[in-house]
Amino acid sequence: MTNYFLSGRNKLLNSKEDLRYNKEFWLEQIEYCKNGYTRNGERINGYYYFFLNFYKIERLDKGKNVCMWYPDYNLVDREVFDYIEIAFKEGKNLMLITGRGMGKSYIASSIIAHSYSFDKNSYNVVSASINKHADKLFLKVKEGLNELPQALSHNRIKDTDDLIISGIKYKDEFNMERIKGYKSKIEKIVFGNEAGKVRGGRPKFVIMEEVGSWTGSARLIDCYSATEASLCRGTVRTGMSILIGTGGEMHTGGSKDAREMFYNAEAFNLLTFDYNNKKVAYFIPSYRKLEGCYDETGVNDEAKAKAFLEKRREQKLQVSIEQYEKEIQEFPFTPEEAFRVNTISPFAILRSRLETLLLGKDYKNLIKRGDLMMTGNKLSDGMPEIQFIENKKGKFQILEFPVWCKEDNTMQARYTKEIKEKVLTSSKNLYISGCDSYDQDKSFTSNSNGSIFVFKRMNNIDESGGLFVAQYTDRPDSVEEFYYNTLLLNLFYRSKMLVEHTKISIINYYKNKKYYHLLWEAPKLNLPDMKYSKAVNKVGYLMSERHKKFALEKYISYVRDNIDKFYFIDQVEDHLNFNLEGNEFDRTIASMLCIIQDNEMTDTAINAEQESSLRLPYWQRDEFGNIVFK
């Protein structure tokens, strides 16, 4: 039994004497809260002792009514508090990803309340990207403080919806207003569009709530990095950040940053844990702590919990795929499940590839980031020479350089005889590109970007190909900057580009810059002699609804046959998020255009009057509103 860890709570509840004013008792309890409690050779740290004995949380009583009461002792909670202590001592931060109902928000709120109660002059921050999440956590902190025993409570000189300051105001002998007491502070901060809001303070703890659904223009990684400087005084580290996220909330751009940090924990100074031969952040499977599956000894019956959750998954699947997906995300067994996005995608088969890329130690190093620039030289084909300059913040991503590149990533001043014969003759158009463009400057109402992918076709030069080798995805302030960057990429690979014809400004740009010859003609599918289409465009792919579905069929066929040829994580993620109703899947559209072009060039497929043998896994909603495949 572990009831001896509840010594303070039990004495308060069961003692016949009034302990409210027992100074000796409270000095002892404060010592346990600050430095931990040891009994029978077992120790729990001060954070957990405070949480168990004095910090009430929202619970269900036996009548299933909501009330404020003490938490149960649990080995998983104890583990979390231990790791918080370890991270603080090691000068690291802690990211915790779990499913719903684990109680991590109460744990985080109690850490804030602990510092406020026992650390004089402390400053602690409750933060999130939006008010909704910050308000919920700040309210938990206030409720917990309000339920503390009087002996542990502080008077407050300020108590608002976003700031609490402890202390007592008084006037000294000169009638000057003074403050005495702990003068500890808790502040709620909503980052929104500004990453550096914690700068200037010196917090002991910063809680970043719902990191998986981080929204606003201030990215999670930027907010986290800007906060880091506030956790040190010179070379001495004085504070830490605790980031908490929930499965099922990974549906915004914030999930990308949270996932990036989770799988690269060391690089972000997060406490690390071994998972599939990789160092990652802290994840707790839903079956490790499920209410109703653990007793008062704190041991969870994981087999029972997992069986219960698996059965519930099966039941959700009978209702709809959408409900099944949501159940997996909200009660994940693995980090990969927690970071899944709540969409039904025809590219779901790529989920396993995404997991492989995330867990693989070397995959990320295969992609080079950098900038492209003209050298001022012209090559034997009369077009400019382009050089790649490596830059970790560069917007061009390169998996494989053109076969004619030199070691310094410039192109050959003149093609060698071998390259000229193989590339310019027998394997002309070794590289092609697809581009999902746009016509207006940076939009404040759309999340859509422009995207171009370069595709290396099957060839007899190095007996490789059939894979995407480069990409550029962005929406700079000037639309012409985007067009120019696509031009640099096409010149680097000497690739012809198939564009979506509905975005015609980029076509005019290439025409005005005398590079119209780098645009691919309209595929046969679009030509007016085909009764499938009335299109009259000379270049580009007219992305009507019917054409879009046709391109999707061809691309699905490519994906199924080439799963192991995907290396760009953001491309795979875009595919997994894809649905026909949205217009923000720029990488997917650009990739589809590459395959349409490759099919056209190999003369294999584009006959609009033929029935495709591939059944498109297209979905619709039935009469009950559920998603079903047809």
Verbal overview:
The chain is an alpha+beta fold. Helix content is 34%, strand content 20%. The chain contains 19 helices and 27 strands. The strands form eight sheets. An eight-stranded mixed β-sheet has the order 7-8-11-6-12-15-5-18, with helices on both faces. Helix 2 (23-35) packs across helix 3 and helix 9 runs antiparallel to helix 10. It is elongated, with a radius of gyration of 30 Å.
Strand fraction band? 15-25%
Distance between the termini: 56 Å
Largest sheet: 8 strands, mixed
Summarize model confidence as the mean pLDDT.
85
The portion of residues assigned to helices is: 25-40%
Shape: elongated
The Cα radius of gyration reads 30 Å
- Could you list the spans in which at least 5 consecutive residues all have pLDDT below 50? 526-535, 604-621
Helical run tally: 19
User: Which structural class do you get from the secondary structure elements?
Assistant: alpha+beta
Give the strand line-up of the largest sheet: 7-8-11-6-12-15-5-18
Count all strands and give the number: 27
